[in-house]
Amino acid sequence: MNPEGFARPAVFSYDNPMEEAISFTAPLWLRNGHSMTVVPKFWPRGNGLNRLPVERRLFTVALHTQILGYCHWQHNRMKAPTMLLLHGLEGSSESHYMVGLAAKGWNAGFNVLRLNQRTCGGSEALSATLYNSGLSDDFRAIVQELTVIDRLDRLWFVAYSMGGNVALKMAGEIGTALPSLRGLMVVSPNIDPTQCVQALERPSNRLYHDHFVKGLKARILRKAALCPDRWDTTALAQIRTIRAFDDIYTAPDGGYRDVVDYYNRSGARHVMGEIRVPTVIFTAQDDPFIPASMFEASAIKSNPNIALVMTRYGGHCGFFQKRRPGEDRFWVENRIMEQLSIRSRRG
Question: Model confidence over 19-43: pLDDT tens digits?
């Protein structure tokens, strides 16, 4: 699959399971989905944002709801292409991949916006509600504002994990309605939350699962401190799983009937066939909780606007590569910038 306007990647073939995409080579000591997932988060890298201009900005996306973003503008923002970065579950604008991509994007001549989902990045007071996998309208509103108010006409979404699902859902829903949205780059997206939560609940994934549960419960406590009449914390002590948390808090807060309804309706899998902008999905066969089989769907394989890049190794959003001349170890960030730089030069 070759999205029009993007450099053609070496797309993984399901007929040849040994094929690697775009020469990704994992170090021998990281050819395990768990280590590949964990190590990149803690690998030291300089904070390239220290010298960049930054503007704190609030986007009103719904009644009494604002999204917090950090904007790194080029000197002439209207002439520069723009990257919108979106994090995953329990991440924020400060997640290591958000910071790394922001520095690379700005150095390549892009405006870069690091966006938080609702209540993330210390923004609990800016929204009465929680974030969830189905809130694609939030980011449609941001694209609309940047198009109309800022008069930006070359916008690319770069999104990870749950943020990738939200971005893909948005793109499928809008079709060609917002021409300023030129394309998407998504990494390890959970396009079918039901399958992903089932995988996350496996004993082998206890480390990630418990980390997410702890973070989600702490968020409710912060929300309750701000608005005790709205948030009942009595159930928190009994919650042991993400599924239970989503059933008690996320689903009703988001207007879903229950957790089954939430996981079903919030997945981008329903609209993948409707995506009309060039889209590249990066994922790995050894991702601990994003099943590779999800991407065999005909809506993905038959959509000429979607390129699927699936590597044998890579973990969840890891893609930490063997030393390569002229690049750091964060392979997927470098491929994203490579693709977007080519596209931006073509207008």
Answer: 334 589 999 999 999 999 999 999 9
